[in-house]
Write a structure and sequence with these properties.
The structure is a single chain. This protein is an alpha+beta fold. The protein has three domains: about 70 residues, Uridine Diphospho-n-acetylenolpyruvylglucosamine Reductase, domain 2 (2-Layer Sandwich); about 150 residues, Uridine Diphospho-n-acetylenolpyruvylglucosamine Reductase, domain 3; about 100 residues, UDP-N-acetylenolpyruvoylglucosamine reductase, C-terminal domain (Uridine Diphospho-n-acetylenolpyruvylglucosamine Reductase, domain 1, Alpha-Beta Complex), CATH 3.90.78. It has seven helices and 20 strands. The strands form six sheets. A five-stranded antiparallel beta sheet has the order 6-7-12-10-11. It has a four-stranded mixed beta sheet with strand order 1-2-5-3, covered by helices on one side. A four-stranded antiparallel beta sheet has the order 13-19-18-17. Strand 18 and strand 19 form a beta hairpin. Helix 3 packs across helix 4. It is globular, with a radius of gyration of 20 Å. It binds flavin-adenine dinucleotide (FAD). The site of flavin-adenine dinucleotide has 33 residues, from strand 3, strand 8, strand 12 and strand 13. Flavin-adenine dinucleotide binds next to strand 3, strand 8, strand 12 and strand 13.
C-alpha cells in the first residue's frame, strides 16, 4: 500500500538533524506502487527525489516536492555454490542489517562496511566504502525503475561505473529513477582485508581474523572515531578526498613533508586526505555559528544545535575557502544537497 504523508517534518529523517519539511513523502513497498507514484508525479509535474535514511543529505530549505522512500525490507539468498552466494536485498533494508545477515551466514565481502548508516538502495549511489572495501566490489546487479517510463532495468555491476564515492546514479541516471533492489555476490572462502593499521591491531586484539572479529573491530573503531548522529547531528565525511595532479601534491609536500597521499586510478594523479587538509588549515574543532568542524575527525561537520541547511552550507563554504587559500586545493562536498 502506498502511504502519503503531507507536510512531513524531516528533522528525524536526516542525520544532520536539520529542521525542514517536505511538501509530501510517498512510501511504497511493491514496484507496482512505485510505478503509480511516478505516473502521478508525471501528471502533476511535481519535483521528486529518492530518500533513504537521510544520512548523506543536507536540505538547503524546505523540500517543495515529493520525497520517495522504499519500505520493503526483504533479504533473500538467491543461490549458493562451493565458492559464492548471491543475495538480493530490497532498497529499504538497513545497510548494517544486511552486513549482519551476511556475517552470520559466513558470507565474505561486506564486513569492512559494518555500521555505515543508510539503506541498501543508497549504497550503490555513492558506492559506499570504508577500511579498504567498497560496495561496488560485491554488487552483481542493481534494479532501477525509470521515473519516465515506469520500466525496471537491471544494471550489471560493470554498467554502474563504480568509482571512488561515485557511480552512474550520480551522473546519467541522477534523478532518473529509483533503485528498488540490489544483488550481491559474496564469497564463502575467508578473505580478510586488514590493510588499515588500526583495524589489523584491533582484530589481533580480538583473536583470529574471522568475520565476526572483523565486524566487531570495525564497529568498535567507528564508534570511537565518529560522532553518533543520534547524539550529534552529522552526515559522516562531508567532503570527498580530492584527487590532484602529482605536481600539485609535490608542491604541497615541500612545505608539509608529512602530508598523507594515496594512489589514485588516473595516472599522474594522487588522492589527498581532505580531513588532513582541513585539520592542517587550522580548522579542527572550529565553529561557524551553529555548525562546527568535529574535534576528533576534521572531515565531519557537526550540528552544534538548531542548525539550518543554509548554516551547514555556509560553514562548508568557509572550510573550502580556507583549504583553497592554504593549499591551493579545492575540496568538494560528498553529501547531496537537496
Ligand atoms: C556517521 C556517518 C558515517 C558515515 N560513514 C560512511 C562511510 O564510512 N562510508 C561511506 O561511503 N559513507 C558514509 N556515510 C554516508 C552515508 O552513510 C551513505 O552515503 C549512505 O549510503 C546513505 O544512505 P541513506 O539511505 O541514508 O541515503 P540518503 O542520505 O537518504 O540518500 C543519499 C543519496 O542517495 C539517493 N538515494 C537514496 N536511496 C535511493 C534509491 N533507492 N534509489 C536511488 N537513489 C537513492 C538520494 O536521493 C541521495 O541522493 C556516513 C554517514 C554518517 C552519518
Amino acid at each position: 500500500m502506498i502511504r502519503y504523508y503531507d507536510h512531513t517534518d524531516l528533522t528525524r529523517r536526516n542525520s544532520f538533524g536539520i529542521r525542514a519539511t517536505a511538501h509530501r513523502l510517498a512510501e511504497f513497498t511493491a514496484e507496482e506502487e512505485l510505478r503509480e507514484i511516478f505516473a502521478e508525479l508525471r501528471r502533476s509535474g511535481s519535483s521528486w527525489r529518492a530518500l533513504g535514511g537521510g544520512n548523506n543529505i543536507i536540505f538547503r530549505d524546505d523540500f517543495p516536492g515529493t520525497l520517495i522512500r522504499c519500505a520493503a525490507r526483504g533479504i533473500e539468498l538467491l543461490s549458493q555454490d562451493e565458492t559464492c552466494a548471491r543475495v538480493r536485498a530490497d532498497a529499504g533494508v538497513e545497510w548494517d542489517d544486511l552486513v549482519d545477515w551476511c556475517c552470520r551466514r559466513g558470507l565474505w565481502g561486506v564486513e569492512n562496511l559494518s555500521l555505515i548508516p543508510g539503506t541498501v538502495g543508497a549504497a550503490p549511489v555513492q558506492n559506499i566504502g570504508a577500511y579498504g572495501a567498497e560496495a561496488g566490489e560485491v554488487i552483481e546487479s542493481v534494479r532501477f525503475l525509470s521515473a519516465d517510463t515506469g520500466e525496471a532495468a537491471v544494471l550489471r555491476g560493470e554498467e554502474c561505473r563504480f568509482g571512488y564515492r561515485d557511480s552512474i546514479f550520480k551522473h546519467e541516471l541522477a534523478g532518473a529513477g529509483f533503485i528498488t533492489s540490489v544483488v550481491f555476490r559474496l564469497a564463502l572462502a575467508p578473505r580478510p582485508r586488514l590493510r588499515y593499521g588500526a583495524m589489523q591491531q584491533e582484530v589481533e586484539r580480538l583473536g583470529e581474523a574471522t568475520l565476526h572479529n572483523i565486524r566487531r573491530a570495525v564497529v568498535s573503531i567507528r564508534r570511537a572515531k565518529l560522532p553518533d548522529p543520534a547524539v550529534t547531528g552529522n552526515a559522516g565525511s562531508f567532503f570527498k578526498n580530492p584527487v590532484v595532479p602529482l605536481s600539485a601534491a609535490e608542491r604541497i609536500a615541500e612545505r608539509y613533508p608529512d602530508m598523507p597521499r594515496y594512489a589514485a586510478p588516473e595516472p599522474g594523479t594522487v588522492k589527498l586526505a581532505a580531513g588532513w587538509l582541513i585539520d592542517r588549515a587550522g580548522l579542527r574543532g572550529a565553529s561557524f555559528g551553529r555548525v562546527g568542524v568535529h574535534s576528533r575527525q576534521a572531515l565531519v561537520l557537526v550540528n552544534l544545535g538548531g542548525a539550518t541547511g543554509r548554516d551547514v552550507l555556509e560553514c562548508a563554504e568557509q572550510v573550502r575557502t580556507r583549504v583553497r587559500e592554504t593549499f591551493g586545493v579545492d575540496i568538494e562536498p560528498e553529501v547531496n544537497i537537496f
